[in-house]
Each structure stands twice: as C-alpha cells, then as structure tokens.
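User: I'm preparing a small set of examples for a lab meeting where we compare how different chains pack in three dimensions. I only have the primary sequence for this one, and I'd like the structure in token form so I can line it up with the others. Please keep the answer compact; I'll paste it straight into my notes.
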Amino acid sequence: MTHKLITFITTAVLFTSAVQAQTGISVEGEVSRPLKLTAADIGRMKNVEVTAADRDGKEHRYSGVPVYEILQQAGVTLGAQLRGENMSKYLLVKSGDGYEVLFSLPELDSTFASRVIILADKMDGQPLPAGKGPFRIVVPGEKKPARWIWEVRSMTVRFAKE
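Assistant: Understood. Below is the structure token output for the 162-residue chain.
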C-alpha cells in the first residue's frame, strides 16, 4: 500500500468513527442509570409510528421510540413514582447545534398523557433527511412544531426546584 492510500484509509476510519460517535444520545441527570445510547441500541427498542403535520403543513408518518421507553431504561421516576416532588422534574432535550426544548415528565408519561412523543429515526418509511437526523423528537398534536427538535444529542432530567 502506498503512503497516500494508508493516510486516506486512516482518515476515512477516523471520520466514520467521529460520525458514529455523534449519532449517540446521552441520557443523564436525575436518572438512576445514565445511558449512552448508540443508533444500534435505539434500533433494538420498542418502535412505534405516529402521523403528524410538520412545518410544511403536510401529514407525515414518523417512526421511532417513545421517549417514555428511553426514560424508563434510564430509571427516571415515572408511573406510580411520578407524584409529589417528582412532579417538578422535566426533560431538557438538546440538539447538535445547541437548540434546546423542555418537556415536563407528566406529558411524556403514558399514565398521564394520551399522546406518544417519540424519538423518530424515520419519516414516511425513510431515514430522516440530512440535517434533520439521525434522531428527531416528534410531538403529535402540537399546533406549532417548535419542540420538534432535530439532531438530538442529549436528554437531561432535572428538578425545577428554586
């Protein structure tokens, strides 16, 4: 092998590793089991499909993992434990470009809410387009998709105590 070919292969491997590292999602904060989820980890989780209108006003089919399922894996206080001071906990979701959105835990909990908020990896049966993925939060039923954060990198559970 020539020196240029070895350099090219090394660069390609390093770039691929960097891209793969960026596709992971950390789940941390007020959790009993902090997580570093890879795309493969997320792919093995329960998958659901929701239909919702995006900014373009058109209905799309999104598939992915209910955020509730991810929080359960991290040991977040949900279900019967979500009462008292735990009602002041929230989830802060952050994207690769620094955009952040907030959800109260009850609106993510299936024992409180009837809608399912998902971490989507597909739209209309296809992977999310470049610049929107690999993961995006989809919130069916909201009039404005301002919390439909794309390029999700982290989820942090915190208390809203003063």
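A couple of notes for your slides: The helical segments are 3-22, 39-43, 67-73, 105-108. The radius of gyration is 18 Å.

User: Perfect, thanks.
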